[in-house]
Amino acid sequence: MSIVEPDRSSAKRFLSVVCPCGRGLRAPIEMAGHEISCWECHRMVLVPIPRSRERAYRVITDGIREIYDARWFFAVLLFAALLTGVLCLKGVGIPLGVLVLFIGLLGYGELIRQCGIDVWDFDDWKEPVNLVLRVGIALAFALSLAAPLLLSPGGLGAPPRFSTLGVILGLIGAFVLPLATFLVYARDEVGPLGWRRGSHVILSYPFATILALMLIPIGIVAAELTVIVMTSWQGMFPFLILDLYPGSEYFAEQYKIPKFGNYTKSVLPDGRFFNLYFRRLHQGFTYVATLPASLSRRTNVMASPWTLDLDDADYLKYRAIYTQVSTMVLVAFLTLQSRWLGAISTLESKRSLEG
User: Contact, 225 vs 232, CB < 8 A?
Assistant: First the structure.
């Protein structure tokens, strides 16, 4: 079936479509997204919805505007607090964190699914195939996000280090897993889109889809920058750079950073510490991965060669606060992505046309 431009004389009232038998058909625009019977062979033919960049932009912006509501901020705050609290449990924090991520990513998929219907319902969860696929993709997504913490070379709680291959695999996962989640969850008023219709929607709106998929990498960068700004403003940036990453005594000597200096002062760090940060970043160490990992391991501030006027409990509190902030930023981008993808799923539906 191929799409034909609407008749110019009645473009606002009729759409044209060609049946596989070759018969040209014309249908009122109100039938877009529905099937009509071919006058020649009596086959049911789907009337396409005319594509419009303006309509796509309107539908997507309307769909994601909801996350600016206060209830969404509260939900993101609550989820980030729960995840951070679980990660603080010694020994079991990271495995339990995967479970929390799994639950959150079930909600991520639901935000996509519920965009395609007018009321909240869970009827299609009763289908065994849908249940298995949705649980499976949420678990795969959660394990992917937690992979740096789970696969850290030093074991659970050690600072994760990203290799070139790890970064490449992470970028692939950041694009593939949201797409797979979309294909598993997306639906309209008729029912789940399925792989064929879902793929058609994605291919029909590639620019909007690519922008949505870019939100996870952008969110990771935004979370990292947010923590850098916070720790620099509070004066904790130098101490964290030296304490969290391995081999800091060697690098401190190279950058002429003295031992037993007081790093509790709320002063902006000098250029040496930013140079050291970028060097460790080049080696594969990031705040976004290291801070959550550090919550589940024991620390001994008194034994550190870098002086900090905090005890272990207060030091854990600061790391938990930074972890929660970075988690909130990342979860906010995930929420935005889910609503964006959910809005894309409605672009081929009758409801989107009428909106």
Answer: no
Instruction: Supply the range of the domain harboring residue 17.
Output: 2-46
Cα–Cα distance list, 314 to 10, 171, 321 (Å): 71, 35, 11
DSSP per-residue letters across 176-207:
HHHHHHHHHH-B-SSSB-HHHHHHHHHHHSHH
Q: What is the mean pLDDT of residues 260-287?
A: 82
**How many helices (H) and strands (E) in the chain?**
14, 5
Report the domain count for the chain: 1
Q: Let me know if residue 42 belongs to a domain.
A: yes
Q: Do the domain assignments include residue 296?
A: no
Which tens digit of pLDDT belongs to each residue from 78-117?
999 999 999 999 888 999 999 999 999 999 998 888 876 6
Sign, Cα dihedral of 49, 52, 55, 59: positive
- The answer to whether 197 and 325 have CB atoms below 8 angstroms apart is no
Lowest mean pLDDT among 15-29, 76-90, 225-239, 277-291: 15-29
Residue 98 lies in a domain: no
Contact residues for 343 (Cβ-Cβ < 8 A; gap 6+): 59, 60, 62, 63, 64, 115
For the residues 127-148, what does the mean pLDDT come to?
A: 91
Query: Does residue 20 belong to any structural domain of this protein?
Result: yes
